[in-house]
Amino acid sequence: MVATGDILAHDAVIRQAAADASGVPDRDAGPDPFAPENDGRYDFGPLLAGARAVTRGTDLAICHLETIVGEDDGPFTGYPLFKTPPHIARAIRGAGYDTCSTASNHAMDDGEEGVRRTLDALDRADVAHTGTARSPKDRDRPLLLRAGDARVAHLSYVHWTNKEVPPGKSFLVNELDPDRVVADARAARAAGADVVVASVHWGTEWQEAPDRQQRAVAERLTASRSDGRRDIDLILGTHAHVPQAYEKVNGTWVVYGMGDQVAGEMTDPRGQLGSAARFTFTAPRKAGAEWVVTSAEFIPHRMANDPLRLVNLARAAEAAAFDPEDAAALAAVRKAVLGQGADRDGLRMGR
User: Fold this and answer.
1) pTM exceeds cut of 0.70
2) Are 117 and 69 in contact (CB under 8 A)?
3) Sequence ranges of the domains in the chain
4) Domain 2-349 indexed as CATH 3.60.21
5) pLDDT tens digits for range 51-60
């Protein structure tokens, strides 16, 4: 399976999608995406096209949609309260993703209606989702996905939201409570999951090292066992907007933060750097035993500007002329990802 970090549609990202839809890749020369006369034309496909080389051929591809979507005809907004054109959902599917985590600090940016619109857009695009829900029943139903010969449960949680969840409607977004995560993981296992993956929106923004909360939660979740079998098989982190380390904790892989996959240009260039996490799970010889990670890889990437495009840095490094900006980005991602010594546990750079 492969997973990637935050899809964060800043104003520049929305402008780029409008420009690409118009056939004018220069987003400053294209139509105003926030004007009524834009007529709802947005194409996020070119932005995400670079992901296909990573998602192609995988049994399961997981994205993280950090923002909610707006009405079909807008208005659309970037930071700080996001409302992304719903066209993003089709682009996510077109890039090869099967499921998205949706629990993030921006999940309540437009209240309950924003949650419902986002899930509706993903449903129309045939992208599974977890982390936000329309009802308590939906929230309590484990998301089980077929991946090769395995049934994979995908869970999603967030530490806090920018806007409060309405009283009595905690089902709208999953709060990061370790006890609840473990309970959900056990319920998913009881429902038939061979592998349980938890996407967690956590950590301190712009900090490459995992913070105290991340470490404490990772320790708690990876230590949890039922009948001698781990409850959670993989933890995928988002939110920090910079690449963070991969590490084995209690024998379980934890990706503290994959960084941003899609983002506009920021004051700190690290905000456009990230890694895709690729793990191969192998079936046990004995029925009911743990599936085991037999390959662990990170694939570094960055969001290039003018126009905004996702660049696979491992593949770019194979070119005869390796762009100095790409080379610097690759070095930065590698340093962050291996910051806790994951290479000693077998983590390798993929392409």
Assistant:
1) yes
2) yes
3) 2-349
4) yes
5) 999 999 999 9
